[in-house]
Amino acid sequence: MAGFSRSGGDPEPPPRLSAQPGDSKGEGRCGLVLEQPVERGEGGLGSSGQPGYGGRMVASQGLPVTSGNARDLASEPTPVILLKEGTDTSQGIPQLLSNINACQVIAEAIRTTLGPRGMDKLIVDDRGKATISNDGATILKLLDVVHPAAKTLVDIAKSQDAEVGDGTTSVTMLAAEFLKQVKPYVEEGVHPQIIIRAFRTATELAVNKIKEIAVTVKKEDKAEQRRLLEKCAATALNSKLISQQKDFFSRMVVDAVMMLDELLQLKMIGIKKVQGGALEESQLVAGVAFKKTFSYAGFEMQQKKYKSPKIALLNIELELKAEKDNAEVRVNNVKDYQAIVDAEWSILYDKLDKIHKSGAKVVLSKLPIGDVATQYFADRDMFCAGRVPEEDLKRTMMACGGSIQTSVNALTDDVLGLCELFEEAQIGGERYNFFTGCPKAKTCTLLLRGGAEQFMEETERSLHDAIMIVRRAIKNDSIVAGGGAIEMELSKYLRDYSRTIPGKQQLLIGAYAKALEIIPRQLCDNAGFDATNILNKLRAKHAQGGTWYGVDVNNEDIADNFEAYVWEPAVVRINALTAASEAACLIVSVDETIKNPRSTVDAPAGGRGRGRGRPHNH
């Protein structure tokens, strides 16, 4: 429709988008319409009242243009339907500020969980299950966040948890604080691309600075490396529910990770929770331990301890069962029926005989081991367990050697596992199977003791974070001081850098530098300290060259946190900074939010005789 000119030669004003309410009768008339004034001109309405070749059709209400209604339609805008009725659109600075505010709300939800004096959150889901945690990623996973911009912060917390295991609260707070500091510039009309460019420059400078000042520990010195790993694990556990036992658990975590092979596969560390007892009764098993599986009658007669046994790992069902599929057998007399029954028993006993002749003393199977097989093994001084979880079966194979067999026809010594000691022991109210002294032990099991179920689940999450940190510290042997020390040093460095450059970049990099101070500030707030006073001390100390000075939560002061062994892998801070900066840039770069309406009517099921996508016959 655009492109026609007025009769006087002046060009028509360009069409403009405007929002109009939907029509109650028309389907799909919605928000966005294209308005263009309609005027008579040369080549307009012909003598018959119909539009001429050069005229303009008015697509309003679907009515044809006649001499009777042309005057009325000429004053109406021309709607062009773009979006479905009920679609919510927002654009420009107001929607960007709305997204920034949503991110602030997410940060507020987990702000108080940061640091060794952080509080815990009790979250109850829709099924009534209660979870107590102060892990940022866990809390955000359990919150049912619906705001699209706020979901970005949830995603970066999850990615931080998956990548390095710790720093999930920090990364969320940094991203929210970056946005908070640039909010005034957005309101003043600074272009988002200028903000993004400044953030990327600042992030690159900060990451390079971390790599420059990080301290590297030589792997050749095993004692020094172990001390480093224990301190990193203790720092990760310092903010957890089990912080009182951090020394006990940090040693256990380091021992567990050091038992793994060079790949440091996380799935090779099993964590089992046993209710009852004290936390200090938790133990590390240098091998495999798993809960005793369901057993049929006859297991009481089986021996519960073997020295140097051969272990058969199977994926075979060893029980007589009814046919799964409908089967029909026609027999002429009882002898034929008895022959079928005898054949079934013969097949089962043939399998059991082959297992016995292989020399295996311990038989584990992923599938059920029935009562007949249980009695058979008990009579021959053998131990068996069916329905063993696949994860535990694989870890047993990794520790004891051998391979999981789907047939009993080739049970040679090559496919059987070995261990120095197998025993079944009582732990709390449960019985556990232990495989220790494994020749190929590249796996281990942590048996956690404790009271409430929620407490033990949080203990497991805390140890998972510590294990991830130790793995990262082994792979990347450079460390920095925690407690807000590295953030204060980066803030001072970027603030000094910003003074050397002109223009808006100076202000924006200065805002980035100020945002980094949220970590030490929040550590002070959560501990009940005077944050302003301590931050002033830290700024002064870092200006004098005190690189590793951070918050001392024990003495309500500042301290050299490197000397105090508050260490964490440099990769944790690098990941947190880059992820937070990326998230902030992503949110700032969004200039329009369009929310499609949720369909209120379920799609009809395909009718009989009409395939999906085939048109209806009217």
If you had to describe this structure to a student in words, what would you say it looks like?
This protein is α+β, with helices and mostly antiparallel strands. It folds into three domains: 90-216 and 481-595, GroEL-like equatorial domain (GROEL, domain 1); 222-286 and 445-476, 2-Layer Sandwich (GROEL, domain 2), CATH 3.30.260.10; 289-322 and 342-440, GroEL, CATH 3.50.7. It has 17 helices and 22 strands. A four-stranded antiparallel β-sheet has the order 9-16-15-10. The protein has a four-stranded mixed β-sheet with strand order 13-12-11-14, sandwiched between helices. The protein is globular.
List the defining traits of the structure above.
hydrolase; magnesium; disordered N terminus; disordered C terminus; GROEL, domain 1; 618 residues; ATP-binding; alpha+beta; GroEL; 41% helix
Summarize the structure.
The protein folds into three domains: 90-216 and 481-595, GROEL, domain 1; 222-286 and 445-476, GROEL, domain 2, CATH 3.30.260; 289-322 and 342-440, GroEL, CATH 3.50.7.10. 41% of the residues lie in helices and 15% in strands.
